[in-house]
Amino acid sequence: MLIRKINITNFLCYYGAANQFEFVEGLNIVLGANGYGKSKLYDAFQWVFSDGITDNAPRATPGGLKLTNAVKGDLVSEKAKAECDIGDSVETKVVIEVDDQRNGNPRKYQLVRTYRTRRTDEKTWVEPGKSEFQILEYDIVSYKPVAEAKQAEILERLIPVDVRPYVWFQGERGISNLIDTSSNGSLKNVIKRLSDIDRWDTYIEVAERAYKTAQSAFDQVLSKSQKNQVRIGELQTEQRLLETQVRRLEEQITNASQNQQEAQEKIDALSASIEFAQTISKLNQARSQAEAAYTAAVKQSDAFDEGLSRKLFSDNWVLLGTSSLLDKFEDKLTAYDDAIAIRKATANLTKQANEKLQIRLPDNVPEPMYVRQMLDEEHCKVCDRPAPKGSEAYDAIVSLLLSEPEIIQPERPRKNLKSFFRQFYANGLGMKSSIDSINQRVQQSIQEQNAGRERVRSCKEEFEAKARELQQQEQLSGIVNARDIVNSMNGATADIKKFEGDLVGDRNKKKQHEDRLREINSELSKLSEGQVPAHLTQKKTILFDLMELTKRVKKTKYQELVQQLEDTANTHYRNINAPTGAFYGTIRFIETSDGGYRPAILDNDGREVGNLNTSLVSSLKLSIIMAIVSANKTRNYASFYPLISDAPVSDFDVVKAMTFFRETANTFRQSIVIVKELLVEDTTRIGRYKPDLVRLHELRTDLQAADKTLNVYQLDMPDGVSNAFRNELEVTIQKVNC
């Protein structure tokens, strides 16, 4: 089968109907950056042939499909759905044109798969659970529908289901699913599927039946003989017992081998789960840390809020706005001091006056007539001193003529609060700077309170986000208790060791029994001389040898196939790795105790190399895949079926990627490789890429020298369109001239 063309309409990120690729016989490269529709192009091929797209769930089987009845409306371009009016429909369609050139009868087909969804209101769609599939065959001038009953047969002829995984694969997961370097049965299954080795099982079965028939006839005649009956009976009884034991051991070996393989598969499955379990463990730890931070933030915020109430008194917030009262108190204290001073001065004057009054002469001494005489003469005759008019002495003489004033009793003593008020004022002065800064401290506390509440909000969001992430991971992986995964892994490992021991023991016993059976057959043949017709003895001997021969030939053929696969894989492996200049070693298929083989890399001294980097592991697996389809010249898979691979060189640098492209072109008649490695940043456009024309020109030149064709497309997006918004997503397809 050669794929000539694919046309994609409103399928996933491929909006509209103008999405067409035309492929050539040779190497077809589709370039696209991450998020530009590379995997969706691969899904378009899968959808047409298998009615499903890649299941990217973490615990999905690598290479597994999510069928249309599970995907439904998610197949449809979000942009096409956004533009669809209520009541209208959106049609998703992928058409692949192929040539079938086998059996000398070339035919052309169109493989068409369609899905339609209808919008009933703003948010509701009618999404059917199945797609429509049709095959059209080119007949002289046009394509005509093929009967539905013939569709499965045509698809199987175009590319058999058991071959498809080895020529169509996606990324590291898809490659690892095909070639599991940790599984002893991986290569065994490959050889069994892609060779005629199983035919020898039929030959062995026929030879065993023929031998059993001949042996039965021989035993019947021998049992009737007259000589050595006791010994013959003993040998025949032992023979039957050993044959029964050999059959039982064969069943045990088969069961142990299957159990060992199942345990290995369990480990392989758990290996992915272990990664998820480790992720879940980290997420659980992160969630616990976020929860602890949230709890601490809440406690700190609550304690701070509680402390704000106490600060009314502990930090004097209750005095907010009282600075003016201190000034008023100062004025009142000054007035108080002044009043006290005035009162004190008045009291002193009164006291002095009273004291003067208390020491005056008795009443009417001297008599008024003498007083008036002294006034007239302006001379005091009591003390014989002059008393000029207007003087204090004169006024004192005049006062002798006045009526005697009432003596004012001293004012009752009052409590002097000056020291108290002073102390109170001093306290106020000491708090003035604190009172003046209360507003600033309140504002600062409010800011701290808001910051604390923001921390609570932020920690809560972080905690909830971590909890959601953990829940999502648990739901996706199906893992709740990571410890169970570890226990299961340990149990499976122990099972493998147990079954390995069983296999070794049972195989040794089987060999011993088979050796003893040969000895019995030899002895019975000697005892049968002259008692059993020669032709029966000869027939039994020939058929026994034939049975043993078919088993040996099968083993030899199997080993030849393994060697052929190993040699071819090494050729591809060397061609991919040698030009890089780095170490790569040699592939060796090492036989295991259960009759399988596992691939390994040996160094120049024949020692197995451990801890291989991902680039070498990927090139090892890709080389084996190439060998699978190219080593069998009889079936000629590389010529009959195209390689379609998405991101096969994601672990390679550009140099190794180039060697892989060359080897792919030289191995397959047609290959379609979807990659991002031959893109460089487009400095003229923000967030966009352009083909690495230098590398592509170099590759084209190399392929032309080998008479191979290079065909290149680029997946791009219009400027201004972001792949962050699915309802705006639109991919453009550009032919690259290199």
Automatic annotation (TrEMBL):
Which top-level group of life is the source organism from? Bacteria
Q: Which residues form the Rad50/SbcC-type AAA domain?
A: 5-275
**Record key words, sorted:** Coiled coil
Q: Which residues form a coiled coil?
A: 232-273, 503-530
GO BP of this protein? double-strand break repair
Source organism of this protein record:
Fibrella aquatilis
Q: Which Gene3D superfamilies match?
A: P-loop containing nucleotide triphosphate hydrolases (3.40.50.300)
Q: What is this protein called?
A: AAA family ATPase
| Listed Pfam families | AAA_23
Spell out the InterPro entries in the cross-references. P-loop_NTPase, Rad50/SbcC_AAA
**GO molecular-function term, one example from the UniProt record:** ATP hydrolysis activity
